[in-house]
């Protein structure tokens, strides 16, 4: 009887193991891949469907300065949100409305504290593709989805776990900086319960921590025009 020598069996096992690992590595979609339907599914999965009133705590740091207080967000489908930040004694600090890509502020107010529209939506757990950008990647690997866009001023990256947005990043070219949104946890009604926004070039950080989520009645039209009310 012809028996296979032990060392030959070991060599074959090693070859099969290497081939299996190579197969696993090649199973992950390479950068630049756009899988049909992945972007649309991610946008639909993160779109909110209910009219909500959300309260939270906020902390803002800029280099050596630190501010904190309470805040509220009013959200109305499909893409309307109103954000109000109040200081320690209840004084109005920042008010802004976001209607799709339009960030509306009271006359003379500064938007330095807030993320730009696409990242502000990300902080609310919503993936709204950046306007004017080109989709360059949309892949799903297990529970993780990666979506990327490019534009003349930089590129965007979004990471989802399951149907939840976890991270968003904008990186500008030619020293224009980097901005990120990290959703560390989700709470009731699938609303982000801890969010950190960073402007890395300006050394700014805004942290939002969820207090409560409630259903809301229809909001008055002036809600979406800060400064009128």
Explain how this protein is built.
The chain has 229 residues and is of the alpha+beta class. The chain has one domain (34-213): Lipoprotein localisation LolA/LolB/LppX (outer membrane lipoprotein receptor (LolB), chain A, Clam), CATH 2.50.20.10. The protein is 17% helix and 45% strand. It has three helices and twelve strands; from the N terminus they run ααβββββαβββββββ. It has helices at residues 6-27, 38-46, 117-123, and strands at 52-62, 65-76, 80-86, 92-99, 102-104, 134-141, 144-151, 154-161, 164-172, 178-186, 192-199, 204-215. It has a twelve-stranded antiparallel beta sheet, with helices on one face. Strand 9 and strand 10 (178-186) form a beta hairpin. The chain is globular and about 50 Å long. It starts with 5 loop residues before the first helix and ends in a 14-residue tail after the last strand. Residues 1-26 have low confidence and may be disordered.
Concise description?
This protein has 229 residues and is an alpha+beta fold. It has helices spanning 6-27, 38-46, 117-123, and strands at 52-62, 65-76, 80-86, 92-99, 102-104, 134-141, 144-151, 154-161, 164-172, 178-186, 192-199, 204-215.
């Amino acid at each position: 009887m012809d028996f296979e020598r032990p060392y030959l069996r070991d060599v074959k096992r090693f070859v099969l193991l290497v081939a299996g690992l190579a197969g696993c590595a090649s199973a992950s979609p390479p950068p630049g891949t756009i899988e049909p339907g992945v972007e649309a599914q991610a946008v639909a999965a993160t779109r909110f469907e209910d009219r909500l009133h959300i309260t939270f705590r906020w902390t803002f740091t800029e280099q050596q300065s630190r501010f904190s207080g309470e805040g509220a967000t009013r959200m109305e489908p499909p893409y309307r949100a109103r954000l109000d930040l109040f200081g320690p004694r209840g004084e109005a600090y920042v008010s802004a409305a976001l209607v799709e890509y339009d960030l509306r502020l009271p006359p003379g107010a500064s938007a330095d504290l807030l993320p730009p529209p696409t990242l502000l939506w990300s902080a609310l757990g919503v993936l709204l593709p950046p306007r004017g950008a080109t989709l360059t990647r949309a892949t799903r690997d297990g529970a993780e989805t990666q979506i990327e866009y490019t534009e003349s001023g930089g590129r965007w990256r979004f990471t989802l776990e399951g149907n939840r947005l976890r991270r968003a990043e904008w990186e500008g070219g030619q020293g224009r900086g980097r901005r990120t949104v990290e959703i560390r946890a989700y709470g009731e009604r699938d609303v982000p319960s801890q969010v950190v926004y960073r402007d890395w070039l300006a050394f700014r950080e805004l942290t939002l921590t969820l207090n409560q989520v409630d259903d809301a009645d229809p909001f008055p039209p002036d809600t979406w025009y800060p400064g009128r009310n």
